[in-house]
Amino acid sequence: MEVHARSTTLLEPQFPALHPNLQDQLVPLTIFDKAAMDFPIAILHAYRAPTPSNATITAALSQILTHYPHLAGRLVADDQRRSCMHLNNAGVRVVEADIHGDLEDHLPLVPSFELTALHPKIDHAEELLQIQLNRFACGGLVIGLTVHHQVGDGLAISLFLTNWARVARGLEVDPVPLHDRAIFVPRVPPKPLFPHQDIEFHECTSLPKAPGLVENVVAHFSPEFVKKLKESTSCADLGQRPYSTFECVMGHLWRSVTMARMNLEGEVTELKLSVNGRARLKPGVPMEYFGNLVLWAFPRLE
């Protein structure tokens, strides 16, 4: 796959004065932002023809950035050496590229080093959000983006992408993102109940072991299989809530992998899960909150 970049621009929000209280502010990272990974995340979205023009997409991006000023800012340190987002409307990087050939010949997109050409380079990039519009000869489009994880978690970025698409279609922004980071008030006095310092904020003192060969496997479970799986794990007769689809499939995969590894009797296995804290905090936080609010959970089983 030969990708030919034909332009690169720095796109700024269309109406930067929409949030005057955030204009040119230094916004310290919350404790949840600091718990997120300190590097960009790369994402690819593929769309078959017909698709909107690049002009329509970039115009919608400039408009939606008005509602997401953090994405157009920069990570800096304040005079107290705290990590902050400078909401200076410096803009996001937009690359337009052409690819000879049909998108259909490359679908589904299988993870490979070749796909790195479909999103902007992340080395030494100061932009918190970078977009690459990859146009195929057939009219298909792959949007590659890199976004710094400390700006927002998966749900926050997903809602941003949804609203970007809505604006491109001429629809209203819905839901409107919540940017109030003052809602996170620690308990007085502090009352830590979990060892977060040893998990999310654990500092590595040695180099990690070199990983072995990792193979990406895509497994498809039919609706009939999932239904049967949920029925086999039903606990409604015990007066408990039924297990969710995620819990049933996760448990099935966990057990299958453990059996395939032939773990010794009594050996403890552990699963690492990301958990959305918006509905779990007391009081809860609206789902449209833009930022990081995900922590790790580690269920164990013997």
TrEMBL record:
Pfam family, one: Transferase
SUPFAM superfamilies referenced in this protein's UniProt entry, alphabetically: CoA-dependent acyltransferases
InterPro entries, sorted: CAT-like_dom_sf (IPR023213), Plant_Fungal_Acyltransferase (IPR050317)
GO molecular function annotations of the record: acyltransferase activity, transferring groups other than amino-acyl groups
Family: Belongs to the plant acyltransferase family.
Protein's recorded name: Uncharacterized protein
Protein species of origin: Nymphaea colorata (pocket water lily)
